[in-house]
Amino acid sequence: MSEAGRGDQDLMVRAAWLYYVHGKGQEEVARDLKISRFKVTRMLAQAREAGIVKISIQHETSETLALADWLAARYGLAECILTPPFDEQTGSLDDETADRLARRGVGLAGANYLTRRLLGTPRLTIGVGCGRTVTAVVDAFTAFPKQNVRFVSVIGSLTRDVSLNNFEVVRLAEACSGEGYFLPAPLVVDEAGDLGAVLRQRPVQASLALAREADFHLMSFGDCSPDAFLFRHGLLSPADLAELRAAGAVCELAGKFFDREGRLVECGVNARTIGIAPEDLRRTEVVMLAAGRSKADALQAVLKTGVVNRLIIDGELAGRLVAAMPLRERR
Question: Which residues form the domain of 236?
Answer without folding.
Answer: 62-329
